[in-house]
Amino acid sequence: MTTFNLRQLRLRSGEQFQDTVEVEIEPLVLGGQEYAAVPPTIPAELTVSRASSGTIFDLAFRVRLEGPCFRCLTDTALELSIRAREYQATSPGEDDDLRSPYVHDDVLELSAWAHDALALELPDKILHDPDCAGLCPVCGKDLNVEPHAHDEVRSDPRWAALESLRDSTTG
């Protein structure tokens, strides 16, 4: 896990620190599938700005995420540009909105912040192609490689009681 020690910065109000830091990004698990950053450690631009009421943190990075397509499970890569901002008040008191969840004891948790920022920027479904046909629900074959249809649709025997009930009420 990558962290940044904020004690080394002695910023006064109006001052800014900017540097490129190497951030380790933990894999994300979505729908039971793992999506990993390749490479797992990436360069990120960290900017820390001191204001009169607190500190503003900015993080920007590009990441390549690899894992399976949501529909057909083909290996898929997704390139994303991430920009995230956090604020930590000098005296947040009991107000959680004035406190960053990534700052603890003058340490900024860069890996956790980058991981969460990446998760927020992901599309609804990670697809290798927007027109992905997916897997056949009957036989499981990849419909992108072998498009086909099944002539007879066998019903699941577990639904037989409900089907007979439906037939008796509609007939």
Short précis:
With 171 residues, the chain is mainly β.
Q: Count structural domains.
A: 2
* Low-pLDDT regions: none
Q: Mean pLDDT, nearest integer?
A: 91
Largest sheet report: 6 strands, antiparallel
Question: DSSP strand (E) fraction?
Answer: 35-45%
**Terminal-residue CA separation:** 64 Å
List the helices and strands and how they pair.
Elements: E1 3-5, E2 16-24, E3 28-30, E4 33-37, E5 41-50, E6 54-68, E7 75-89, E8 103-104, E9 107-109, H1 110-121, H2 160-170
Antiparallel strand pairs: 1-9, 2-5, 3-4, 4-6, 5-6, 6-7, 8-9
Q: If you had to describe this structure to a student in words, what would you say it looks like?
A:
The structure is a single chain. This protein has two helices and nine strands, in the order βββββββββαα. With 171 residues, the protein is mainly β. The radius of gyration is 24 Å and the shape is elongated.
List keywords for this structure.
mainly beta; 13% helix; single chain; 171 residues; 6-stranded antiparallel beta sheet; 2 domains; 3-stranded antiparallel beta sheet
